[in-house]
Write a structure and sequence with these properties.
mainly beta; 22-stranded antiparallel β-barrel; 5 helices; elongated; disordered N terminus
């Protein structure tokens, strides 16, 4: 008993002595702008760079750190969205307590509202991507994301809204870095241009990213506020063409304490027109098409971020896309001077059906004490249903003036479910070395049902399923020195696909494990000049649109189907990029070489069911090995205080050996060199602080391809912007395609000699208004970015 008492007394004496020989640091942390306390700011005490103690401030911004040895320390105070404070602490026998009352200054402030957009877009070259920060000059290009894409360097949009990067359509399109079940061409038409914060072009993605996309990834990042209090932005616009089209969007945000709520709603509606013809010269048959689409689409995004503490964040959001479309395609086929016994054929077709997609995302982020040390978990689920009711009324007049008609209906229902689960880990081993690792599971299930009462179709009911399972893990290791930095990575992936037509009447399965390596080497010649060399191995897998044996669209002479037996295409890509920054702007240029196996491309072949040799089937096939190379150059330069320019050019050439079909149904290889040149010039003129003007020119050179030859395209736009109400309101006016020169024209010899041209409402006037309200400090919560995994090329003429 005496021994226990003695030990207790001894330990109490030691503890008291240690307390008497230690010191205390305390204080209060407030915001510099409004003097309000900052809760949950991180206060760290460091000794020679190592953290010896630390706490978070309480609800009143106060903190106390006790039991510190009496010596010199460094104190660091951090909070998201504020500049870090670093100071010195000296504890001694004469100074046992130190008090720090610190006012933190915001890293960025919005004094005039939220989503303050720069006058002009800027281009930033990062280690693995080119970032276009969207300015007012781009948002005035049109109502939707699809409208502004042709203004982006290296990006093209065809008459159907299909995207291509560096002349190649095999490109992944992401929204906020995450996959979507909707076809990108359709989705981009639903996103208001004013909702876009930046566009990222990832032309040679590292192993950290999914390996899909031969020409790379286009990631569209939407605005998301995280400002204290309540704030938002309203945008509305009207496009004048053959008829008026309307768009509007509303972004709202409310942040209080640890919780941030955000939401976005956008709507586009109106009727779009597209006219064209296809002329078959061997028989003097001309097919005229008159196309109109009445579209009404909605996009909603609602979510919240919960800051559990300074090291743990929980986030959730849901995005809902809903669209109703009514399309009319009137086809008039003139057989004059043809050897056939048909004089004329006229078809009225009507396509109607809603589609909807619901996406649900849950994410958890843990930030370790070491700066840059993070762990992320994320689950994403997307469910899409597309329905199409189509009716066809075809009247045929023969040379003897007798006529007949066929009336039938089609019904298509597509359901797609996509589940993705990720874990990502980042550990900066030291100031120069970073290790990243992660794993992903992606499961896709699709079911497609088709029914018809078309009398000439054999299969009246078709059921098609296309399911994929992808499991992958990646590892990257990088080091950064004074002038040199590098990153090496590898991604291991298990891929399985199972396609099933009509409950097993025709099956297709593929299962393989593949390694996708990547490497980056960056050398900073000095602060203003950077060189980069990169390599990656990529893959493009067939998408549902490219494989399903169900008609996508149909005219009396052309029907579009998928190819169930398409193989993936693999690409090895090498790039060299150079970036120079100077006082008045920046200059970027790069060259690339790609080696491609089994490239997926479109083909036209004769319809074997047509004995007259007039009908064609539009489908997909794998080309043989080919090699591509190219370069791009872009400049962002401010000539004077009132005038800046952003010219860019890109060129790509592909040596292809593709398959073409002849009129007799046989096929042959057709080796060609496909060359594509694009040029853009964006010029902004600032008349005064409120009024500015813009001039945009675009040129796309002719392209001689495997299947057909596309003719050149060009246009010029002019516009103006006016700001008022202390920059809270912005009014935009843009006249697109001033001389009405944009059109898509082509000619081909396969499978028949033919030519054609399509024109759409390229000449339009767009009037838009944006109004910002609310304001506050930006305290953004970082989230991971995901990407899609299939080749989205589908669709056709409409």
């Amino acid at each position: 008993m005496k021994l226990k008492f003695f030990l207790f007394a001894l330990f109490s004496f030691i503890a008291t002595t240690q307390a008497q020989n230690t010191g205390t640091v305390s204080g209060k942390i407030i915001e510099k702008s409004n003097k309000t306390p900052i809760s949950y700011a991180t206060v760290s005490i460091k000794d020679n760079g190592k953290v010896v103690s630390g706490v978070n401030t309480d609800d009143n911004g106060d903190f106390t750190i006790k039991n510190l040895a009496r010596k010199s320390y460094t104190i660091e105070i951090q909070y998201i969205g504020f500049r870090k404070y670093i100071g010195s602490v000296i504890l001694s026998d004469n100074k046992k307590m130190a008090t720090f009352n610190v006012s933190l200054e915001e890293e960025a402030t919005q004094l005039k509202g939220v989503n303050v957009v720069a006058e002009r877009s800027t281009i930033e070259q990062k280690i693995d991507r080119k970032v276009i920060n969207v300015g007012k000059d781009l948002t005035t290009a049109g109502a939707s994301a699809s409208d502004i894409m042709n203004n982006i360097p290296s990006v093209n949009v065809d008459q159907d809204g299909k995207l291509s990067l560096r002349g190649n359509e095999n490109v992944r399109v992401l929204i906020d870095g995450r996959p979507t079940n909707l076809d990108p061409a359709q989705l981009l038409k639903q996103i208001p241009s004013t909702s876009i914060k930046k566009i990222e072009l990832i032309t040679n993605p590292s192993a950290k990213y999914n390996p899909e996309g031969m020409s790379g990834i286009i990631n569209i990042v939407l605005h998301k506020n995280a400002n204290t209090g309540f704030n938002g932005t309203y945008s509305g616009g009207i496009t004048f063409g053959q008829t008026a089209k309307y768009n509007q969007s509303l972004d709202l945000n409310y942040k209080t304490g640890k919780v941030n709520f955000f939401g976005n709603a956008g709507n586009n509606f109106g009727t779009h027109f597209n006219d064209g013809f296809i002329k078959k010269t061997d028989k003097s048959i001309t097919q005229d098409l008159d196309i109109s689409n009445e579209d009404d689409s909605y996009l909603y995004k609602v979510g919240m971020d919960y800051l559990i503490n300074d090291h743990n964040t929980l986030s959730f959001y849901t995005t809902q896309n809903k669209a109703t479309g009514l399309g009319f395609v009137n086809t008039n086929i003139d057989y004059v001077n043809s050897a056939d016994d048909i004089l004329n054929m006229y078809q009225k077709s009507r396509y109607q059906g809603p589609n909807k997609t619901g996406t649900y995302n849950l994410a958890y982020k843990h930030i370790f004490k070491k700066e840059g040390h993070t762990l992320d978990f994320e689950g994403n689920y997307s469910d899409t249903e597309e329905t199409q009711n189509a009716s066809f009324d075809t009247e045929t007049t023969k040379t003897d003036n007798t006529s007949s008609s066929i009336v039938y209906n089609d019904f298509i229902n597509d359901e797609r479910k996509l589940g993705t689960f990720n874990i990502d880990y980042v550990n900066p081993l030291n100031e120069k070395t970073t290790l990243e690792a992660g794993a992903e599971a992606r499961i896709t299930r699709t079911e497609n049902n088709y029914t018809t009462n078309n009398p000439i179709v054999t299969d009246k009911v078709v059921n098609y399923t296309y399911d994929t399972d992808i499991y992958s893990a990646y590892l990257t290791f990088g080091q950064k020195f004074k002038k040199l930095s590098y990153q090496l990575g590898a991604r291991f992936e298990s891929y399985n696909v199972a396609a099933n037509l009509n409950n097993g009447s025709k099956k297709f399965d593929d299962d393989y494990i593949t390694l996708y390596p990547s490497a980056y080497l960056t050398y900073n010649l000095n602060e203003k000049n950077t060189l980069q060399l990169s390599y990656s191995r990529r893959v493009d897998r067939p998408s549902l649109e490219q494989t399903k044996p169900i008609r996508e669209f149909s005219t009396p002479l052309v029907t579009s189907f998928g190819n169930q037996e398409l193989r993936p295409q693999f690409t090895n890509s090498v790039e060299v990029n150079y970036t120079k920054t100077f006082e008045k702007g920046s200059f970027t240029t790069g060259v690339f070489v790609r080696s491609i196996n089994d490239q997926i491309g479109r083909i036209l072949r004769p319809d074997p069911s047509d004995l007259n040799g007039n009908k064609q089937i539009l489908t997909f096939a794998n080309y043989d090995h080919n090699t591509a190379y190219g370069f791009e150059v872009s400049l962002n330069y401010k000539i004077t205080k009132w005038w800046d320019i952003q010219p860019s050019i890109d060129f790509s050439s592909i040596d292809q050996d593709g398959v073409v079909f002849l009129a007799n149904g046989t096929s042959k290889n057709n080796p060609v060199t496909v060359a594509a040149f694009n040029g853009r010039m964006n010029s902004n003129f600032k008349a005064n602080k409120r009024l500015s003007f813009l001039l945009f020119g675009f040129y796309r050179g002719a392209v001689d391809g495997v299947q057909n030859n596309s003719h050149e395209m060009y246009k010029m736009d002019i516009g103006s912007r006016y700001t008022l109400l202390d920059n809270k309101m912005n009014i935009s006016l843009r006249f697109n395609d001033v001389f009405n020169t944009m059109k898509y024209a082509f000619d081909t010899q396969y499978p028949y000699p033919q030519s054609g041209q399509f024109t759409w409402e390229s000449q339009t006037v767009y009037l838009g208004l944006t109004y910002n309200f609310g304001g506050g400090k930006i305290k953004n919560l970082q989230r991971k970015q995901r990407e899609d995994n299939t080749n989205k090329g589908g669709g056709g003429m409409f």
